[in-house]
């Protein structure tokens, strides 16, 4: 008897379950009367709990609402400042101003004359003058060693020698002036290096600030406080008369005679003055505080003295000026203290000399000396042997 071969397998034999067919979502009726077959979306229907979780995590903000809010914000910013989004123009102006400063330095370096050949010629001329100066000193020393040996001899000096001596004297004076000028220009050590570097960077920054302030329209940045119109005395009087019924006296010039008539019963609160403008004022319209205000404000903080609209370079310059004034004040105080101490020391010396040379003291010293002299005479007479 024959039949199909038997297949053997080892392990866990799990029967495969038949796959369930995927149910497609049945579209409902459309609100616009369309048939279900008009929609080509063959999406798979998700379980109810997953659909609910997605609905909970879905943001409740509409894209159209965000776009409308952004458009309103942009419109408000453009009304305040037309150049609020002109980033490229402002950046180009700043870089153009800095490039002008760099080109000016390069042009200054390019305008310099050739320094190698001219330096060699100048060095040769200087060495020649040094040699002539050394020869003159050697001749002068020889004349000093000779002394009066050739004093009775005649001396002959040529005009060329006199001209040469005059040129040497002028060269020495020019060299001294040039050394003093270089010493004053270069300064000492790293201080002069940092000073020159700070001056160059500050010049570039000032050029960039000037370019941005001149190109941008002169409009205020940020929100501004509404300007209140100052009421005249006549308007104030009319307002008080309408509110209280009192008659306010006004002179021929339209001014209130007695301003106490404007006060009412109770606490009269005066409106505070508006603070100074800060960043709402353009850079070109900002001004630094007066030097007198900085001198008189002692004990207050540095930031309170500075105008809030000043740049970092202006604040640094004012800080250097305040430091210079403080150092000068300290030097004057130290000099005054030294002078006062010298005057006190001189006065003490005068008092000591006056006490030492007093008339009564001199009389006492004379009297004591006289008594000592008499005592010595008496002792000498007593010790003298009697005559036989």
Automatic annotation (TrEMBL):
Keywords: Coiled coil
InterPro entries according to UniProt: NS_splicing_regulatory_protein, NSRP1_N
One family name in Pfam for this protein: NSRP1_N
GO biological process: regulation of alternative mRNA splicing, via spliceosome
Keyword Coiled coil on entry: yes
UniProt-annotated stretches for the region Disordered: 1-43, 163-191, 204-236, 270-327, 351-388
Bias type Basic and acidic residues, positions: 166-185, 314-327, 351-381
Residue spans of biased composition, Low complexity class: 204-216
Segments forming domain Nuclear speckle splicing regulatory protein 1 N-terminal: 71-187
Superkingdom, taxonomy of origin: Eukaryota
Family, as annotated: Belongs to the NSRP1 family.
Annotated protein name in UniProt: Nuclear speckle splicing regulatory protein 1 N-terminal domain-containing protein
């Amino acid at each position: 008897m024959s039949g199909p071969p038997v297949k053997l397998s080892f392990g866990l034999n799990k029967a495969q379950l038949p796959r369930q067919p995927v149910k497609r979502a049945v579209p409902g009726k459309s609100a616009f009367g369309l048939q279900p077959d008009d929609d080509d979306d063959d999406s798979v229907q998700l379980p109810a709990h997953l659909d609910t979780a997605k609905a909970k995590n879905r943001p409740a903000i509409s894209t159209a609402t965000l776009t409308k809010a952004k458009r309103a914000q942009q419109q408000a910013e453009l009304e305040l400042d037309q150049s609020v989004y002109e980033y490229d123009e402002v950046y180009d102006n700043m870089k153009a101003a800095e490039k002008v400063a760099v080109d000016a330095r390069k042009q200054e370096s390019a305008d310099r004359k050739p320094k190698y050949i001219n330096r060699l010629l100048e060095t040769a001329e200087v060495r020649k003058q040094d040699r002539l100066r050394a020869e003159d000193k050697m001749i002068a020393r020889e004349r000093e060693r000779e002394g009066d040996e050739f004093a009775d001899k005649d001396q002959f000096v040529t005009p060329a020698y006199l001209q040469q001596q005059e040129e040497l004297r002028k060269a020495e004076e020019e060299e001294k002036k040039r050394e003093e000028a270089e010493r004053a220009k270069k300064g000492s050590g790293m201080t002069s290096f940092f000073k020159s570097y700070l001056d160059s960077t500050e010049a570039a920054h000032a050029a960039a600030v000037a370019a941005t302030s001149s190109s941008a329209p002169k409009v205020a940045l940020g929100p501004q406080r509404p300007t209140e119109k100052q009421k005249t005395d006549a308007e104030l009087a009319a307002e008080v008369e309408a509110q209280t019924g009192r008659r306010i006296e006004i002179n021929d010039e339209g001014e209130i005679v007695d301003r106490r008539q404007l006060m009412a019963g109770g606490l009269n609160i005066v409106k505070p003055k508006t603070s100074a403008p800060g960043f709402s004022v353009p850079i070109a319209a900002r001004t630094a505080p007066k030097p007198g205000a900085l001198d008189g404000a002692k004990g207050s903080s540095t930031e309170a003295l500075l105008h809030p609209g000043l740049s970092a370079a202006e604040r640094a310059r004012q800080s250097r000026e305040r430091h210079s004034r403080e150092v000068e004040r300290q030097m004057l105080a130290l000099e005054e203290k030294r002078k006062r101490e010298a005057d006190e020391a001189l006065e003490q010396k005068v008092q000591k000399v006056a006490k030492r040379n007093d008339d009564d003291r001199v009389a006492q010293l004379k009297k004591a000396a006289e008594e000592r002299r008499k005592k010595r005479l008496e002792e000498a007479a007593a010790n003298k042997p009697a005559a036989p």
